[in-house]
Amino acid sequence: MIKVSEDAKKKISNLMEEEGFNSLQDFVRVGVKSGGCSGLSYELKFDKSKADDDKLFEDNDIKIVVDKRSVLYLAGTILEYSGGLNGKGFVFNNPNAQRTCGCGESFSL
């Protein structure tokens, strides 16, 4: 299960609208790929379709799809958004990550 904070929900909804997506019917695709300073990095993009082997989660009125390979890495993650002068943008608070890099965009298990 992936959770979405209230701030992340607002930012996702705004960005989806700006890019021609509908936050009520389209998806946020979250995944993990090899790379980054700690070994694995997060992917976040919008998608209009769901593959047969994707897992679908919905939290805070945001539909999230995750490919089956990434589900184990992301279980229990909370997607947050930090704006402002010192804001980092989207932040993945992942309880499975044993080590993260300084920028918060990569992790290792």
How would you sum up the major sheet?
Answer: 6 strands, mixed
Structural classification: alpha+beta
What percentage of amino acids are in beta strands?
35-45%
Spatial shape: globular
Q: What is the CATH class designation?
A: Mainly Beta
Overall number of strands: 9
Q: What's the domain count?
A: 1
Q: Uncertain segments of ≥5 residues (pLDDT<50)? A: none
Secondary-structure element string:
EHEEEEHEEEE
Radius of gyration, CA atoms, in whole angstroms = 13 Å
By CATH, the superfamily comes out as: HesB-like domain
Instruction: Please estimate the helix content.
Output: 10-25%
Cross-sheet strand order for the largest sheet = 4-5-2-3-9-8
Distance between the termini: 18 Å
Question: Can you tell me the CATH architecture?
Answer: Sandwich
Please state the average pLDDT score. 86
Protein name: Iron-sulfur cluster assembly protein
Pfam families: Fe-S_biosyn (PF01521)
Domain Core: 2-105
Family: Belongs to the HesB/IscA family.
Characterize this entry briefly.
The protein is built from 2 helices and 9 strands. By secondary structure, the chain is of the alpha+beta class. Strand 6 and strand 7 form a beta hairpin.
Give a description of the structure:
This protein has helices spanning 6-18, 68-74, and strands at residues 3-4, 27-34, 40-47, 55-59, 62-66, 78-82, 89-93, 99-100, 106-108. With 109 residues, it is of the alpha+beta class. The protein has a single domain (3-100), classed as HesB-like domain (Hypothetical Protein Aq_1857, Chain: A), CATH 2.60.300.12. The strands form 2 sheets. A 6-stranded mixed sheet has the order 4-5-2-3-9-8. The longest helix has 13 residues, at 6-18.
